[in-house]
Amino acid sequence: MQIEETGRVVVDSAMKVHSALGPGLLESAYRACLAHELTLRGLAVSQEKPLPILYEGVEISVGYRIDLLVEENVVVELKAVERLMPIHMAQLLSYLKLSGCKLGFIINFNVPHLKDGIKRVVNGL
Length: 125
Hints:
Blueprint: H1 3-21, H2 27-40, E1 45-50, E2 53-55, E3 58-60, E4 65-70, E5 74-79, H3 86-99, E6 103-108, E7 118-122
Parallel strand pairs: 5-6
Antiparallel strand pairs: 1-4, 2-3, 4-5, 6-7
Helix pairs in contact: 1-2
């Protein structure tokens, strides 16, 4: 599956999860349900994928984790917050750089309409 198609499936799946659950739950609930939905749609999904930092040729594990890594090429960071902040975008950009992935999403489920909670980011590497 091409990366753009994977991205479309991620967004469609998130919309389905949000429609079923609505806002107000913990991020972990949305993560588990979205991972389940993506798996049902035939995509490979890793939850809480460790992301080490490469510093001077050495991998250093400092506790960073990608919420969902879809098809090994799309980073999905989930939030359940009142509003997205610049630090959330910085986090996603860092994860894209560290992972080498080109496409990522921040999805904030704590909104009345999920279309208002999705930010798509492309990393130019």
